[in-house]
Amino acid sequence: MRLNLLHPKHWASWLGVALIYSLGRLPFPLLWAFGSLIGGLSYLFAGSRRQIARRNLQCCFPLLNHLARERLLWTHFIWLGVATLTQGVRWGISLARIRRLVRIRNQSIIDTYLNAGRPVILLAPHFIALELGGAGLTALIHPCVHMYQRLRNPVIDWRVQRARCQFGSIPIERSDDLRSLIRVIKSGAPFIYLPDQDAGRRGIFVPFCNQPAATVPMLGRFAALTNAVVIPTMTRFLPWGRGVELCFDTPLEQFPSGDPIADTTQMNQVIEAHIHRLPAQYFWVHRRFKTRPSHLPPLYSQKRKR
Q1: pLDDT tier at 1, thresholds 50, 70, 90
Q2: Where exactly are the structural domains of the chain?
């Protein structure tokens, strides 16, 4: 830890870290109950984030009627409350508690390739249980490599990165030389690839839930450079505070094809399938369609920027 983080200007952040950490020591069912209550209430006061999520649901579930979408939106905020209140669970979590909280489905899929020495890329969409699922992955299966972008608050950034590296996970900053990432993947560390945030003008437009979405076309390239198998991986909170489930799906077939557009489209189709299985726990409050083709109007209000 850098000593400048102890400067008095960061003391308020340290109090916040202490509060989040302390909450994380509470029994998980209790956190689930309080988080559900807070999330349900936050739906009423979320303002712009509620509007972003509502717009995303309108685009991605056009066949749902208004009442069904609003019910899905409200349920989503309940799960957001659970995710928020359980954030500190991962901070300093013990191996014994991970074993109690994280259930793994289809582990044989990833074990087959790890035992054979085949590089692995885990296609991990932004479902809101991803942090705890990642803890179970690194602690119970294999230390992984992940890319990260520094948070604005240096105290929170330090605490989050310390938690993510607790069980040997290897961080690679987005601005770092990608050759080091390729070397780590080839060495046998599974790469957790988060593919579904707005890529801005550096991305390409491919379909995602019936909308052109700016997407980074790197998954196929990473797979080609490392000869890695790509395994879709989904995390979800279990009901009634029973913990988190980490599920591995069948690896992508005939991937990569060598065509960035085809590969990125296939990736988005896989993510869509996961979303339709568990729509309430996908991260809808992100402006996924913020970047639009020049001939299309914006989908979100321009009054406030992300």
Answers
A1: low
A2: 3-281
